[in-house]
Amino acid sequence: MASIKYTDDLPKEDRSSVIREEHIETAFIEKLRSLKYIHRPDIHDRKSLEENFRQKFQELNRVELTDAEFSRLLDEIVTPDVFAASRALRAINSFMRDDGTPLNYTLVNIRDWCKNTFEVVNQLRINTDYSHHRYDVLILINGVPCVQIELKTLGVNPRRAMEQIVEYKNDPGNGYGRLHAVLPLPALPVGQLRDGDKERPDSAPFPVKPRHQRDMTYPYKPHQIEEFLRLEKCLPPGDTLELEKMSNGGMGRHFETRPQLVDGPFVDMRYLGKAPELDNPQTYDASFLLANQRVRGVGYEAIGRRRFRFKDRIPKGWHLNACDPNLPTNDPRQNVHHPMPDFKTTDFRDFINRTARMWNIDLGWEWEEGLL
Fold first, then answer.
1. What is the CATH number of domain 6-177?
2. Sign of the four-CA dihedral 237, 240, 241, 245
3. What is the pLDDT at residue 140?
């Protein structure tokens, strides 16, 4: 779940007040936007939600549905069975059109998932027969509401968010009976007290540890790191590899992208590199980060150096740097240099392509003349 920096993200006049749900919501949406999700404030009711889904469905399947066909389609795909909904989301489905011809369709692009659109909607209101439902945050994939998120502060027991979702689903005429939500998966990002705030027993359902005492265990084991490196990755929709000038004012360039698994769950990954001197390949460096920690890198050692602390020597030349964030920094296995005597590169473009292939990242780019 998103990491939210409350104190820095809030206006100065609000920093002395208690964190409210709208603060968490704003920071959470900004986090999703930084991950290339598209914020859709124009989707605020059932009508706009269904119109957006209809547009995405027709574009994906290259078809124009009549109003009657679209209404029947909604009746067929919406189900209270989460397993059936999940299967429909991943499968090729069949639909009989008004003229009797079958239409084979998918709800999302299951062959090249990077070409799907990922959107975030907040404060969606749906009027039911008995009440007015308001959903904090929804995540849409190709217009399909796949995740419902109810946000709660520490002053509210997280169980209340679960109860709220159940109440919505049990309400006659509820919003779940139409398009929303095909796959309701509640998540609970809970607010934290800022530095300087006093912990109050009446407002926090569980104690908040000081930052230096919080659990900093790395989320992935060594075999999982290897698996993520092996799996195919691509850039998310709308993301491109762009070279930017380095901040030192020189002629160097650097880049940073956030690749995602072609077939798998969302994982926080970053692929970045720099060329302080474009005409000198020995200055090039590339890194692959997993959960904000460097796990692999490629660089050049201009001179051999000895690591007296670990009683080993790093020879001159290109190296693959393998890091294991699970180990303490004083463990020699935490940062291992593997020489690559056969590694050669001609320019920064070639270096980027080689390191991307090394970590199975499909950049999907065409090099433009004059890009440097």
1. 3.90.640.50
2. negative
3. 92
Q: Specify which residues 45 forms β-bridges with.
A: 125
Joined tokens for residue 98: 């008004």
- Give CA–CA dist 324/52, Å, rounded: 43
For helices 67-77 and 46-61, angle between their N-to-C axes, nearest 10 degrees:
100
Angle at 299 (CA atoms; ends 295, 302), nearest 5 degrees: 145
Distance of CA 62 to the CA centre of its chain: 28
Strands (E) located in the chain: 38-39, 93-96, 102-105, 118-127, 132-141, 144-149, 233-234, 244-245, 253-257, 260-261, 269-275, 285-290, 293-301, 305-307, 312-314, 317-323, 335-339, 361-362
pTM: 0.47
The closest alpha carbon to 190, from 156, 213, 166, belongs to 156
* pLDDT score recorded for residue 328: 84
The Cα 334–Cα 124 span in angstroms is 47
Q: What is the DSSP string of 203-221?
A: T-SS----GGGS----S--
Query: What is the identity of the amino acid at 73?
Result: L
List beta partners, residue 233. Answer: 261, 361
Could you tell me the two tokens for 214?
Answer: 């919080």
Segments of the chain scoring below 70 in pLDDT:
1-19, 80-83, 127-133, 153-216, 238, 247-250, 303-313, 365-372
Show Cβ contacts of residue 47 under 8 Å, excluding neighbours closer than 6 positions. none
Q: How far apart are CA 123 and CA 133, in angstroms?
A: 9
Q: What is the pLDDT of residue 85?
A: 74
- Residue linked to tokens 């549905």: 65
Nearest alpha-carbon partner for 284 in 292, 293, 275: 275
Can you give the residue ranges of every domain in the chain?
Answer: 6-177, 223-362
The sign of the CA dihedral 137, 142, 144, 146 is: negative
Rounded Cα–Cα distance for residues 81 and 248 (Å): 56
Element (H, E) at 55: helix 46-61
Specify the 3-state DSSP secondary structure of 22: helix
**CA angle, residues 251, 252, 254, in degrees to nearest 5:** 145
Amino acid, res. 271: Y
Extract the tokens encoding 218: 């790395």
